[in-house]
Amino acid sequence: SEKSLKEVVGDKFLMGVALNVRQSSGADTSAVKIVKQHFNSIVAENCMKCEEIQPKEGVFHFEDADRFVQFGIDNGMTVIGHCLVWHSQLPDWFCVDEKGQNVSPEKLKQRMKTHIQTVVGRYKGKVKGWDVVNEAIVEDGSYRKSKFYEILGEEFIPLAFQYAHEADPDAELYYNDYGMDVQGRREGVVKLVRSLKEKGLRIDAVGMQGHMGMDYPDIQKFEESMLAFASAGVKVMITEWDMSALPTALRSANISDTVAFKKTLNPYPQELPDSVSQAWNKRMQQFFQLFEKHADIVTRVTAWGVTDSDSWKNDFPIRGRRDYPLLFDRNYQPKEFIQKMMDEQSDT
Ligand code: G3I
């Protein structure tokens, strides 16, 4: 039978993948074949974000999210919802009134409650767990000064978790963020988890987004954070795993200077030099082994996209840039470290 990553992983943790609309609608048949064969959990890359679901107050657009959830049900997948409260991709109307002034705390609470309970309630019993709040803590451990924070202070986070729980008491609830290896953020998130628990609110796990590069994060610090979250009494999930394979020459390039970048035009060759590809596979394998080592606290590892051509990392700073960050390549083939795991397993 065809080799399968999810079979290699077995019951260590869920093997997840983020789907875009072309995939969850079934249009991208090659990617869908990979998803069915190798993964047992899916998360919506974009179609469940606030700007997509409620672009105008009271105007809900559920078509793409419904198809995403149905894809999961039809294929026996664990379905994950992303994300209920996020400062980014938030429609302009959410936190301001018609004059563009910040709405009152009462008004914002009511809007959060309506959004969260309409979305979570619709998928009650179908979505296993939700990224309730995304990216609310910054590197030094303090709260991101988002509109949510400006208007409601720290309260917006427990409120979001409370509203989600009321709408689906059986759903798992998560806090999700990036750069979770950074000590300041790690401590801030631990503090947040403890405060939610002290309030008697449900929080099942912390999502470590896992957006990586060839020289970050420090695997030791990443592991320390995994253990710190577990000791705060929650499970750990790697929610958005990918690793840029920046050719070394470009690693130092100031990629924010798109003029210089444009001079290099498409800085990513059609194929990576072997040396870079081997280094990339080695580092990815190291992290996968770290997740397996801590399978007692890791409940899910999710890749942020199916193949290299689907990755958001191709988008910045200029569209069309090629990167090689995911578990399957542009020819829908498994990367070396994945193939090796499957070969080893079938040899046993
Ligand atoms: O759907 C529109 C399309 O109609 C329009 O023609 C096109 C061109 O403007 O834009 C399309 O929307 C884009 C959307 O992706 C779907 O492709 C948005 O512009 C673009 O900003 C959006 O980017 C997503 C980004 O989040 C912002 O929502 C990326 O795909 C997605 O990978 C990325 O994922 C985030 C996680 O949600 C949270 N953690 C960080 C991660 C990376 O930024």
UniProtKB/TrEMBL annotation:
Chain ranges of the GH10 domain: 1-344
A Pfam cross-reference name: Glyco_hydro_10
Keyword Hydrolase: yes
Listed InterPro entries: GH, GH10, GH10_dom
Any single GO BP term: xylan catabolic process
Keyword Hydrolase: yes
PROSITE patterns: GH10_2, PROKAR_LIPOPROTEIN
Superkingdom of origin: Bacteria
Catalytic reactions of this protein: Endohydrolysis of (1->4)-beta-D-xylosidic linkages in xylans
EC number: 3.2.1.8
Keywords: Carbohydrate metabolism, Glycosidase, Hydrolase, Polysaccharide degradation, Xylan degradation
One GO MF term: endo-1,4-beta-xylanase activity
Broad class of enzyme this protein falls into: hydrolase
Similarity comment text for this entry: Belongs to the glycosyl hydrolase 10 (cellulase F) family.
Full protein name: Beta-xylanase
Annotated source species: Phocaeicola plebeius
Organism taxonomic ancestry: Bacteria, Pseudomonadati, Bacteroidota, Bacteroidia, Bacteroidales
